């Protein structure tokens, strides 16, 4: 792990951050032509192109009948997975659901003389959830992406996944996914965006995926809505040295094991503590099953920032705007008012990120790579949309017509002016 | 205007909608290389490239000192515009502000045994508002884009505009814009996204613009957040024949005069009424100052849909998901529960769109081209972001640790498992 001493030279922060930011830089140019072609063909040819791509990329011979995973298989998966995992999934589902219920929004109306104004809040009708196959095929992803949609009231949640496994299917069963299709990649995303003879067209696509999936989502933004533009994930730990070094080290590694490009960062005002954490990280790495991935992440991007005090620690944290922020200090709540930018804030020694990833209830789909400055955790608010409602009586109209005409005149829009004028004359 | 009779052949709706949708199809390929180059140069060279582009595209010799419009000029513009417009702008500002105050969201915390979970809601720190120059330089645009940001609590609102005029500057003064820069185009958008020596970097860019601006915003989505992907605007009127034909016609034209690509659509169950509306449209067109624009829009895209009854009218409206929907019927509230997709819903004969465009209070920046299926009117919710907050006591941790380990094991993430296990042993 690299150590950056900001106590004497705070300007080095930006240099290091610039380096760290590189891991998020997507070589879009390289893939874009391919993804554009896939999108274009799915749009024009529908199923025909879809099944061709499934054959080419996934090596599978699927058709209109076999691309959909029947509901019975979900139920079967649910029954066949081990009791311990099933129970944990049920509890996680219940807790996630309860937390997200709090995010619901209501329509409102306000009245004043001659005018009623309102905002009508409605769920999206149909959404698509992308669940990756391969090394990142996680049942927790299913729960975290589907539950906010169902809580919002979305009628139909379509899940696509290139490689279903019993855990993800069981999770889909638990949270009541409407339909599951065995398809992934940019072709799967495009099929959801335009609809094909077999895949229903959706209004929004959410969920993580590889570079092809991420790029397809970004290119199709506007045709459908998407959740966010996601990059490699990261954890940042603020520590005052009051928490055991091996706990801190384990938390750093729990991020590093995700991805070679994952970022694990520590900010502390205790130099000795920092050294012990680094030592513990390398010690633990030795026996880790995902050692190769975690080691690359730690060596390439792992960073300790030494700061003067916890106030500077918060400043640095805000500058980084991390996806996950752990506050491992004696009095973690004391720092909360100073934290402006972070996807999720884990307070205190008994709140390791892993608890939040799986079971506590808040969403684990979080803004990465500094986008916590402007993006939010996935939530019910991502699955609703609003319409303004306006009603004016004749009296209300007469109170406001002159001002409306004045503004229409200032903007040179005569028909706007006329649509008011003509009503005044009646 | 084209008349489509859906009473006998509803399938023709899709054909016509496909034709109408063409107007929103952006020839991205044509402009994308140019816009990408501009973005790349602004990112690398900052001010140097910025002032070069200002010279090339706007024909202006500006530098670090002259690109910013001093505050005194805003004040001066406010004082110098005519009293009637100034008063109308003040009243509009006040009403917009009051409506948007209702959209504010609060942080929340929930507690249960051993666990505190919360969502911390905070305003974005700095946002950029794009205000077009030329034919679309409207003071109402300034109010509608800035007010939701200031109500949300955004500290700094940076406005850029290639061609300031007294009305837009006065509007900027009224709603308390922080700084105004005279720059536009893709180079202006890129400057806001990356920051230059002179232009401050922002977290989000909102506001309408031409194809270069729209494309730059889309390409920079992820570097910053953006409001929405906007296309040409449209109005759809549901009429039962109870409202005067010339009123209906004026409302259709108030949309058509915006843009040759604007869409003006009427749905009615009264054939005679439809014919009279069409006649009134052509009659009014004759003397309209923006006749050329409005006529092209009406002739190319203007459409009357004849339906069986008002229930079918709502179905068609939902299919179109219009930006503006006027319900000109005897009992407009009766249809409200059937309307699923629309940016703004104007109920009743005394609520022409123009009132909503300027003065009523709800935002006039609305989702276009069918995106009302998933996008919302611009609002306070576009200028805030959320962070999850999680805190667990030792007892709370012990209640949940086994389930967390079970899920970490199922997903094969050993360091996640370890970060829990290690805390159990203490």
UniProtKB/TrEMBL annotation, chains A, B:
Substrate binds at residues 233, 255, 258, 324, 357, 411, 416. It comes from the Bacteria. Belongs to the histidinol dehydrogenase family. Its EC number is 1.1.1.23. Binds 1 zinc ion per subunit. Pathway: Amino-acid biosynthesis; L-histidine biosynthesis; L-histidine from 5-phospho-alpha-D-ribose 1-diphosphate: step 9/9. One of its GO terms (cellular component) is cytosol. It is an enzyme of class 1 (oxidoreductase). The keyword Metal-binding applies. This is Histidinol dehydrogenase. SUPFAM superfamilies: ALDH-like (SSF53720). It catalyses: L-histidinol + 2 NAD(+) + H2O = L-histidine + 2 NADH + 3 H(+). Catalyzes the sequential NAD-dependent oxidations of L-histidinol to L-histidinaldehyde and then to L-histidine. Keywords: Amino-acid biosynthesis, Histidine biosynthesis, Metal-binding, NAD, Oxidoreductase, Zinc. Its cofactor is Zn(2+). GO terms for molecular function: histidinol dehydrogenase activity; NAD binding; zinc ion binding. Zn(2+) binds at residues 255, 258, 357, 416. Pfam families: Histidinol_dh. GO terms for biological process: L-histidine biosynthetic process. The active site is at 323 (proton acceptor), 324 (proton acceptor).
């Amino acid at each position: 792990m690299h150590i950056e001493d900001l106590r004497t030279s705070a300007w080095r922060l930006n240099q290091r951050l610039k380096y760290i930011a590189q891991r998020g830089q997507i070589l879009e140019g390289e893939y874009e032509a391919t993804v554009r072609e896939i999108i274009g063909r799915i749009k024009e040819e529908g199923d025909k192109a879809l099944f061709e791509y499934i054959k080419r990329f996934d090596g599978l011979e699927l058709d209109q009948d076999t691309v959909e995973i029947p509901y019975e298989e979900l139920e079967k998966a649910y029954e066949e997975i081990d009791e311990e995992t099933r129970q944990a999934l049920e509890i996680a589902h219940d807790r996630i659901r309860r937390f997200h219920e709090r995010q619901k929004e209501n329509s409102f109306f306000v009245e004043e003389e001659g005018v009623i104004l309102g905002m009508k809040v409605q769920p999206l009708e149909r959404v698509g959830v992308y669940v990756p196959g391969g090394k990142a095929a996680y049942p927790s992803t299913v729960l975290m992406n589907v539950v906010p949609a169902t809580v919002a009231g979305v009628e139909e949640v379509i899940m696509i996944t290139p490689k279903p496994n019993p855990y993800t299917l069981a999770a889909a069963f638990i949270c009541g996914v409407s339909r599951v299709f065995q398809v992934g990649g940019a072709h799967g995303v495009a099929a959801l965006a335009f609809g094909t003879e077999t895949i229903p067209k959706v209004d929004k696509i959410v969920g993580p995926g590889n570079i092809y999936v991420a790029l397809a989502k970004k290119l199709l933004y506007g045709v459908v809505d998407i959740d966010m533009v996601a990059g490699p994930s990261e954890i940042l730990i603020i520590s005052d040295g009051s928490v055991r070094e091996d706990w801190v080290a384990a938390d750093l590694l729990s991020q590093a094991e995700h991805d070679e490009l994952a970022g694990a960062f520590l900010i502390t005002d205790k130099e000795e503590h920092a050294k012990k954490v680094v030592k513990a990280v390398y010690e633990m790495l030795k026996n880790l099953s995902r050692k190769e991935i975690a080691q690359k992440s730690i060596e390439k991007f792992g960073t300790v920032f030494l700061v003067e005090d916890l106030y500077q620690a918060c400043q640095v944290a805000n500058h980084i705007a991390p996806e996950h922020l752990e506050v491992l200090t004696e009095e973690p709540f004391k720092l909360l008012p100073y934290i402006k930018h972070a996807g999720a804030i884990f307070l205190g020694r008994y709140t390791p990120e892993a608890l939040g990833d799986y079971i506590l209830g808040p969403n684990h789909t979080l803004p990465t790579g500094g986008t916590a400055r402007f993006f939010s955790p996935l939530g019910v608010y991502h699955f609703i949309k609003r319409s303004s409602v306006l009603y004016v009586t004749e009296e209300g109209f007469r109170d406001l017509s002159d001002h409306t005409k004045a503004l229409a005149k200032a903007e040179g829009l005569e028909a706007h002016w006329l649509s008011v004028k003509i009503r005044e004359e009646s």
